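re: that chain from earlier
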Amino acid sequence: MNPYKLLTSAMDGKPLFTIDKYKFILNPLTEQVPATTSQLLEAASKAIMNHMRTDKYDKIITEEDKGAILVAAVSLMSGLPFGMARWYPNNLANQVSSIFSCEYLSEGTLYICGIEQNDRVCIIDDIISTGGTLIGMIKALKEIGAEIVDVIVVGEKIEYKGIERVAQETGIQVKSILKISVKDDFSKVVGSDELYKC
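^ sequence. v structure.
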C-alpha cells in the first residue's frame, strides 16, 4: 500500500474516546490499537522527513509519551541525534523544565534532556490537539537558548485549534501533514498536505 494511504487509513474513520470533554482517536500509530506496524511507522516517518530541512538542524526533539517512537525512527532515517522532553526530572542542577497544560492533564511539567544552548532544533510530534504540550516544550527550549527551526506534527485535530494557539502564544508556525476532524463519533481526515511525497 502507498505510504500516504497507509498513514491516512490509520487515522481516518477510527472510533473516538473521550477524556474530560476532549476526544482521542483510537488508532494504531498513537494508541497501538491495533499494534503499530513497521510499515505504518515508516510511512509516518517519511511524511515527517518530507517536511524537514535536515541541513538546518543540529538535533530533533519530541515529548516522551507518544512522540518517542516517531523521533527515534526519524533519527534513524535522518542521522540526526535527538533529545527528549521527559515527564520526570533527572535532578541535574541545570535541567530546564516547563509547566504546561493539555487536553488530558490540567497541569504537568516537562523536563528537557539532550538539548543545549544554540542548538538548532526541529520539534516532532504525533497529533496536536489544544497545543499545550508543544507550548510547554517551546518555552523550555527558548529558555535553554535553542533555536526552534521547525515544528512538524503528523496530524492536527482541527476543532481544538492547537496550531492557532501555538502561533498566538509563541510565534511559532506548526506544520501538519493530516487535518483530522473529531466532531462526530469517528475521526475523519478532511485534508492533507498536498506536498506529501514518498
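The chain has a mean pLDDT of 90.
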